[in-house]
Amino acid sequence: MGNYSPQIDQFILKSQPFAQPILNHLRALIHAACPEVEEKLKWGMPFFDYKGEMMCHMAAFKQHCAFGFWKAALMKDPLLMARAREEKAMGHLGRIKTIHDLPSDTKIVNWVREAMKLNDQGIKLPPKSKESKSETPVPDDLKAALKQNAAARKTFERFTPACQREYLDWIADAKRPETRLRRLDQAIEWMAEGKKRHWKFERK
């Protein structure tokens, strides 16, 4: 049997009414495709792990939901690959506002099974290429984490654009999903304490 986390239950119950059927539906499909899935709440969002690795995740915002796969860039569906390469948002299906915005159940189940195979085979995401960065947008996972931590959010909003960019670039430069999550967690902790990215090197 899959691991149904009470934390995810509460997350769904506290989400906007429009989001609850969407989240429940996605959750049911994930468990149907992967009975061994482990549910975890990370940075205020539901994550679904398989064999010790992140597989997929979902989120709920004020007016839309998001759903995505950690290794979408390695999956066969052109839509998932394209959205993963854009790296502009956490989800790969755009803004999901109703359950009718979701692809068919069969397609989602097949995606989950494909993601399972990548974890079974131990396939990792390739290192990110270095590209010029004119402007770094705030990604959805950081937005959601800041929403959950008022102290960190106030610090981030008070930062100059240059200070914000130091954190944004550090998170974006993570070559592996697990590294990105660790950096996101560390960034929230430091910002909650009012610290800049390179606080350790500041003169006291």
Explain this structure to me?
47% of the residues lie in helices and 12% in strands. It has eight helices and four strands; from the N terminus they run H-H-E-E-E-E-H-H-H-H-H-H. It has helices at residues 6-14, 19-33, 78-86, 105-120, 140-148, 150-158, 161-172, 177-192, and strands at 38-42, 45-50, 53-60, 65-69. The protein has a four-stranded antiparallel beta sheet with strand order 1-2-3-4, with helices on both faces. Helix 2 crosses helix 4 (105-120), helix 6 packs across helix 8 and helix 7 runs antiparallel to helix 8. The longest helix has 16 residues, at 105-120. It is globular.
Keywords:
204 residues; alpha+beta; 4-stranded antiparallel beta sheet; 47% helix; 12% strand
Compose a concise summary of this entry.
This protein has 204 residues and is of the alpha+beta class.
SSE arrangement:
Elements: H1 6-14, H2 19-33, E1 38-42, E2 45-50, E3 53-60, E4 65-69, H3 78-86, H4 105-120, H5 140-148, H6 150-158, H7 161-172, H8 177-192
Antiparallel strand pairs: 1-2, 2-3, 3-4
Which residues form runs of ≥5 with pLDDT under 50? 130-134
Which of globular, elongated, flat, extended, rod-shaped describes the shape? globular
Rg, alpha carbons: 17 Å
Q: Note the total helix count.
A: 8
What fraction of the residues are assigned to beta strands by DSSP? 5-15%
* Estimated structural class: alpha+beta
Rounded mean pLDDT is 86
Report the span from N to C terminus: 54 Å
Strand order in the sheet with the most strands: 1-2-3-4
Largest sheet: 4 strands, antiparallel
Question: Residue share in helices?
Answer: 40-55%
Tally of extended strands? 4
* Succession of helices and strands: HHEEEEHHHHHH
